[in-house]
Write a structure and sequence with these properties.
The chain is α/β, with parallel strands linked by helices. Helices cover about 30% and strands about 25% of the residues. It has two domains: about 230 residues, P-loop containing nucleotide triphosphate hydrolases (Rossmann fold); about 80 residues, no CATH class. The protein has a six-stranded mixed beta sheet with strand order 7-12-13-3-14-15. The chain has a five-stranded antiparallel beta sheet with strand order 2-1-4-5-6, covered by helices on one side.
Length: about 350
């Protein structure tokens, strides 16, 4: 698990240290630095692929379908404006280990990206942790087509129907997914089915409503696709995985967000995952447990401070008294969290 990340001259950060929990939500105004933190963690994952600094920042120069795409903004915008290098220092509790490990990487971005100091990744005990970072960026347009039965769901949800079909070969897994969908959707769903193309082995997912109406993946709502894709991805992620998600509530009705939060808090306990997610929804914060709310990190930019500031809510003075008096939704909506920075 990634427990701490210090960012020096990385994008909007001057020198900021951020503590991370098994479930950490990132909140703050647009362009406050939330996605920049995710970019930093994704950069660390790039190290596990043994790529050059140039390839990690700007993308691999090959044309293969699984090529590394690089970091948003590339090397031109990785270092803070006016700087030519950045550093990331992370603290990890590797799976199965009792002690933490601190890892620092420095990178020069101009004129050509290079690591400032050589390191032997294979000797680092945190290598498995870096490899298990995953950015789940589900895109409904990628989830509507036929798929092939496989244990692989693409980062954008490619092969949604094929992956779902393989999971549903297990009757207990199928019943559990139907239960979650029945709680999410209206009218209530009763079952999952698949259109099979035996000649090529392709399948297309079908939701069955009360009364027998059948809705294929081509017509399933974006919110339902994202919700079901998130369930499947996290239920099958390797223990110890660090999963990154942006705007996790996208497409969900506010009255159903509690289902998502309940699932996230359950899956980190049962599967030992770490989930780091951005949100712009006060409803998400309302449904968090007291511990998870306190671990939420607020990002902001203030006039008298250069760069992004990031603080855990529990570390903000008077947070507990104010939230008990006014509620987190109102604090979020009126900008109290950012003003408190």
């Amino acid at each position: 698990m990634l427990t701490r990340l210090r960012l020096t001259n990385f994008k909007s950060f001057v020198d900021e240290e951020i503590e991370l929990a098994p479930l950490t939500f990132l909140v703050g105004a647009n362009a406050s630095g939330k996605s920049n933190l995710l970019d930093a963690i994704w950069f660390l994952h790039g190290l596990s692929l043994l790529l050059s600094a140039d390839d990690i920042l700007n993308g691999e120069k090959r044309s293969a379908g699984n090529r590394w795409e690089g970091i948003r903004g590339g090397s031109a915008e990785a270092a803070r404006y006016g700087e030519s290098s950045f550093a990331l220092e992370s603290t990890w509790y590797p799976v199965g280990k009792s002690a933490s490990h601190r890892f620092r990487i420095e990178c020069t971005t101009k004129p050509t990206p290079v690591f400032s100091a050589a390191f032997n990744f294979d000797e680092e005990p945190l290598s498995d942790g870096l490899r298990q970072i995953r950015w789940l960026d589900l895109e409904p347009r990628q989830m509507r087509g036929y798929g092939s039965r496989s244990p692989i769901l693409g980062e954008q949800g490619e092969n949604f129907s094929g992956f779902l079909a393989q999971l549903c070969d297990d009757p207990e897994e199928r019943a559990s997914l139907v239960d979650w969908l029945a709680a999410l959707c209206a009218p209530e769903l009763t079952d999952l089915d698949f259109i099979e193309v035996p000649e090529v082995g392709d399948v297309l997912a079908v939701l069955i409503e009360k009364g027998g109406q059948r809705i294929t993946a081509r017509s399933i709502s974006d919110g339902t696709l994202r919700f079901l894709g998130t369930l499947m991805a996290l239920r099958t992620a390797d223990p110890g995985s660090v999963v990154l998600l942006e705007e996790i509530e996208a497409g969900l009705h506010p009255s159903r967000i509690n289902l998502l939060i309940h699932f996230l808090e359950m899956v980190i306990r049962e599967r030992g995952l770490q989930i780091i997610a951005t949100t712009h929804s006060p409803v998400v914060l309302e449904w968090l447990s007291e511990e998870a709310l306190g671990n939420t990190v607020v990002f902001g930019r203030v006039p008298d401070h250069e760069g992004t500031i990031a603080r855990r809510l529990r570390a903000i003075p008077h947070f507990q008294e104010v939230v008990a008096r006014t509620g987190i939704a109102e604090m979020f909506s009126i900008g109290w969290l950012e003003m408190a920075l």
